[in-house]
Structure formats: structure tokens, C-alpha cells
Amino acid sequence: MKILLVEDEPVLLDEIATYFKSHHFTCEHATTFKHAEQKLTDYLYDIVVLDITLPDGNGIELIEKIKQKHLETGILMLSAKHSLQDKLNGFNLGADDYLTKPFYLEELNARVNAIYRRKALKGAEKITFDGITIEPLSKSITFQNQEIGLTRKECELLIYFVINKDRVVSRTSIVEHLWGDHFDQNDSFDTIYVHMMNLRKKLLKTSGKDYIKTVYGIGYKFTF
User: Of 31, 84, 117, 203, whose CB count within 10 A is highest?
Assistant: First the structure.
């Protein structure tokens, strides 16, 4: 899961980002409206966790900009204010949930996971095909109830492919999703090739099928 955290309080931002990363989410952050707007222009995210009170703009306006470009991106609003109008404005513009500060990180995590299930997984807890069962939130992947020995990055890569089934995904989009925007493109492309080859071999050995098709000059396509 790739998350953009928009929060201007340094201590809270660090706490949330550290927590998300400890759960193996790709978490990027922005501390201003302008910075967040630029990131949303340049990159795609599964979830945006958004403080609606920012030093240079109103987070409510950012929700509208997100929905204009990225209809599938989930949005969780954060606010220190118990404002019914802020909630209504955010929900009317397309936000998915609202959390009032202070909050427990465990509750934030549960709400983010719930949005992810609704948006990316269409409400499903599991994805099953050809005897393979994927539980995206727990990163559990089995074949006929036996664990498949995937590394964490191979697991994240497989989940990304399954969510984007039958779509051609570029190498750049894969790298950005798995490593965020802090990557060396040449090194990351070499790394993604290694992960791709290993994942392909393990799936072929497990199910006898090659689900990953190379679209030369563009990227890859996952079909089943």
C-alpha cells in the first residue's frame, strides 16, 4: 500500500510515518498544501491521509483536487477540530473517512486498511485464483493452503499486479509504488527485474502457469 501523509505537525508526522513504515507501507509525506499538490501531480497513491488544516491552504480544497485527478485514491481526513461542517464538506467532495485528533495509531491503521479494502480490493478480504489465495493486508499468500515462499517485495509486487489485473503497468509505476519517489531509476529498474524474474519462477513452479506477460518497451501485464 502506498500512502501520502499530509501533516504539518513534525512530531505527529514522524510518529505516523514511522508507524506506517513499521507495517511495511510505502509512506511519503508533505507538510504543506503546495508540496502535497505537487506530489499528487507527480505520483499515484492508494491512500491520502490528510490534515485539513495546513499552513498555506485548506485541506478540504486538496480533496477536490485529488478527486479531479485520482478517483480511486482513498482519502482519510485528520483534524483537531470537532467541526461538523468540515466533515460534511470533506465527505461531499469525496473523502472516505474522518478522524479527530488525538487518536490511537492502531485506529488510524484500521481505518486506512478499511478504506484500502473498499477501494483497491472492492471490499474483499481475500483474492483467490487457480488455487492461489492472497490476503493483501496480512501479506499471506498460499497455494492450496500451503505458504508460497515469497519475499516481502515479491509479495507486494504480486498484490500490485493482481489489483491491476489485465492492465499494462510500466516499470516506473511499479518502482514508485514499491519504493516511493526516493529511488535511483537505473538501480531500481535492475532490482525490479530481479524481483520480477523470481516471482515469475515461483508462481510457475507453484501453479504451472506464467501470469506475467512482458509488454516490450512499456512494462508488464498480469492476467489469470
Answer: 203
Q: What distance in Å separates the CA atoms of residue 154 and residue 157, rounded to the nearest whole number?
A: 5
Smallest CA-to-CA distance from 75 within 94, 56, 92, 89 is with 94
Task: Calculate the CA dihedral of residues 158, 160, 163, 165 and round it to 10 degrees.
Answer: -70
Grade residue 183 by pLDDT with cuts at 50, 70 and 90.
low
Q: Which domains does the chain have, with CATH numbers?
A: 2-120 (3.40.50.2300), 127-222 (1.10.10.10)
Using the structure block, give the residue that is written with the C-alpha cell 484500502.
Answer: 116
Q: What is the DSSP string of 95-139?
A: --EEEESS--HHHHHHHHHHHHHHHTSTT-S-EEETTEEEETTTT
pTM of the model: 0.75
pLDDT of residue 8: 93
Question: In the structure, what pLDDT confidence band is assigned to residue 185 with cuts at 50, 70 and 90?
Answer: low
